[in-house]
Amino acid sequence: MRWQEDPILEVQHLKMRFGGLVAVNDLSFSVGRGDITALIGPNGAGKTTVFNCITGFYRPSEGMLSLRHADGTTYLLERLPGHAISWKAKVARTFQNIRLFTGMTVLENLLVARHNPLMIASGFTLLGLFGLPSFREAERQAVEQAKFWLEKINLIDRADDPAGDLPYGAQRRLEIARAMCTDPILLCLDEPAAGLNPRESHELNELLLSIRRDHGTSILLIEHDMSVVMGISDHVVVLDYGTKIADGTPEEVRNDPSVIAAYLGVEDEELDKVEAEVGL
Ligand SMILES: Nc1ncnc2c1ncn2[C@@H]1O[C@H](COP(=O)(O)OP(=O)(O)OP(=O)(O)O)[C@@H](O)[C@H]1O
């Protein structure tokens, strides 16, 4: 199992407290390099809180989040500021609710993701923005990369339209493309299939599989749509009330009585009955 042999991310004893509420409690799991890993669980289980800790939106109350690049460089994410998690550690994310710049064009939304390299190429001077060859080259590369992703997500014909005019499913794909324009090694997607129809969710599966195959990007996703989770994940981690209740391949997790019970809202005492019903 890649998540045991070559983890890109190791979450160790993660705890997140909000006042008296413990949203995530002593959570440990690994994400395999090159794997598609799904983090699932009932509403309020703590999934988005885990994402917020990994991507620097929250500082964990306790625990360690170590991200290891292929060359061995390791980043302790809980110690890095948010911008360094994206820029240095190379972790990108999308949000549960779409967060595009709706008044900007589709192309501009992708160019925003190249802000850091563009500013460095400008030498952080106004003159650099107009004159430096390095800036013009960085700008050309940013446009090329954006066009590549627009082709890939079938939005090249809409490049100059405002992002807010796109249909919902296309906006979701654009968000993923924008995250990919930061060249992440770990892509975190918060409910990418939410609100998609079955055709769009099939297209999403294809897009995620091609991101993993063609770019080697590891993917960690939160998802309620089981056709996405069971269809493309290599590894599934299940949370309930902030703790891990299962961790394994989709097949292992699918038949786990505690997972079924958590989803059905069954009390611990009724677990035997659920086990009998699923034939375990
Ligand atoms: N900033 C916050 N302040 C206080 N409580 C919070 C905060 N963020 C999350 N919580 C609480 O932490 C718990 C876990 O929330 P979280 O959003 O992580 O769950 P989730 O598994 O992502 O749920 P869903 O599937 O509904 O998105 C919930 O009880 C939630 O109310």
UniProtKB/TrEMBL annotation:
One of its GO terms (cellular component) is plasma membrane. Gene3D superfamilies: P-loop containing nucleotide triphosphate hydrolases. GO terms for molecular function: ATP binding; ATP hydrolysis activity; L-isoleucine transmembrane transporter activity; L-phenylalanine transmembrane transporter activity; L-valine transmembrane transporter activity. One of its GO terms (biological process) is D-alanine transmembrane transport. The keyword GTP-binding does not apply. Keywords: Amino-acid transport, ATP-binding, Nucleotide-binding, Transport. Residues 9-266 form the ABC transporter domain. The keyword Cell division does not apply. It holds the Pfam family ABC_tran. PANTHER family: CONSERVED COMPONENT OF ABC TRANSPORTER FOR NATURAL AMINO ACIDS-RELATED, HIGH-AFFINITY BRANCHED-CHAIN AMINO ACID TRANSPORT ATP-BINDING PROTEIN LIVG. Belongs to the ABC transporter superfamily. This is Branched-chain amino acid transport system ATP-binding protein. It comes from Chelatococcus composti. The lineage of its organism: Bacteria, Pseudomonadati, Pseudomonadota, Alphaproteobacteria, Hyphomicrobiales.
